[in-house]
Amino acid sequence: MKYLFPALLFTVTTSFAQQLTPERANGLARLPLKCLQQEYPNKLSQLLADASELGSPRTLHPVFYGCFDWHSSVHGHWSLVYLLKHFPNLDNRQEIINKLTVNLSKENIAQEIAYLNKKHEKSYERTYGWAWLLKLQQELDTYNEPFAQQLAQNLQPLTDLLAERYIEFLPKLNYALRVGTHTNTAFGLSLAWDYAVHANNVALQNSIRENALRLFKNDANCPFDWEPSGTDFLSPCLEEIGIMQRILPEKDFIKWLKDFAPRLFDKKYTWEPGVVSDRTDGHLVHLDGLNFSRAWNFYRLVHQYPKQLGHLKDLADRHLTYSLPAIVDGNYEGEHWLASFALHAFEEKGE
To answer: Residue 17 — very low, low, confident or very high, per pLDDT cuts 50/70/90?
Structure first.
């Protein structure tokens, strides 16, 4: 099947290109495995109180020092746990388990907690890194292997800290961040909601629901034509849909969605994937992530509302297929994080 978009014509075998096969799983696993304990290059995003706080990435973050930055390391860990769970015969299974066990030790987690407990680091990785950490916890909790259960126990204190941070922070956020990058409020709430439901954390669920309704319930006519901005890796419109789909009853959500995104109900609606002009540019390559973000939100809508929104599956497939080949193109700018985004899209697709 051929899909034609600006500057790119590619031919794929649909049955393969849109499936998470064992071959593809092994290829995706190699990316976070390669960078999980790769300290440099590294972007610390550190606020220094004084010279005493200077340190190497591995010293400052003994768990999440690899894969260029803290949050990419977190979702790199999630990717490997997810792949191990779904493909127990991965080629590098034992190497993956060994690296996860070394990184996610109780002692290392304690050092990460100490860093986040610095008075001037309370907002560190808020809320993007927080959200992926909660997703990692959920993946370990639901992986019925002794090593994973031990790692889940090790990680839990850090998870508890970030859950408390959400509850403390959300009422203070007077205005949602409707951006296509890390600080996007809706995305940070969606993964946290999934964890809160999994963990039966009622306080976190209540906080997310109350504040998401306060921030988003009255939104209407999201400007789809404004997307994407030049370096987006999340879809602001679709991520907002993602959190509202989670917290609203089905009837209320459909009513809200018809006001917020009426075009999605048009069976002929189309939306071109974001086009990357230079995948060696760490910011421009974000648009591959945007395509995966669109895909995972479309898939979620399709699964829950097949009659009203089932036609969006074609759009989801096109966005997934468009950027999938770019993950393994040899450029670290994308390789250190895009596998996680692709896997999340496959996860919502139901594979």
So the answer is: low
How does pLDDT run across 57-84, given as a tens digit for each residue? 999 999 999 999 999 999 999 999 999 9
| Residue whose C-alpha is closest to residue 248's, from 136, 240, 108 | 240
Q: With beta carbons less than 8 A apart as the criterion, state whether 151 and 140 touch.
A: yes
Q: Are the beta carbons of 234 and 181 closer than 8 angstroms?
A: yes
Structure tokens belonging to residue 321: 């297929």
DSSP letter, residue 118: S
> Of 78, 87, 77, 67, which Cα lies nearest the Cα of 26?
87
Read off the amino acid at residue 79: S
Residue 55: both structure tokens together: 């340190």
Strands 8-11 and 2-5, sheet pairing? antiparallel
Alpha carbons 273 and 178: distance in angstroms, whole number: 19
Q: Return the HEC string of 126-141.
A: CCHHHHHHHHHHHHHH
Two tokens, residue 233: 């890796």
Longest CA span, the chain: 60
Model confidence pTM above 0.90: yes
DSSP string over 25-89: HHHHHHHHHHHTT---S----PPPSSGGG---HHHH-SSS--SSSHHHHHHHHHHHHHHHHH-TT
C-alpha 64/C-alpha 251 separation (Å) is 41
Helix (H, G, I), strand (E, B) or coil at 154: helix
**Cβ distance 35 to 335 under 8 Å?**
yes
Question: What does each C-alpha distance from 32 to 37, 96, 336 come to in angstroms?
Answer: 9, 9, 6
236-247 and 185-199 are packed helices; what angle lies between their axes, rounded to 10 degrees?
30
Ordered alpha helix ranges (H), the chain: 14-17, 22-35, 57-60, 70-86, 93-103, 106-116, 128-141, 146-169, 185-199, 202-216, 236-247, 250-260, 286-304, 306-309, 313-323, 332-335, 338-349
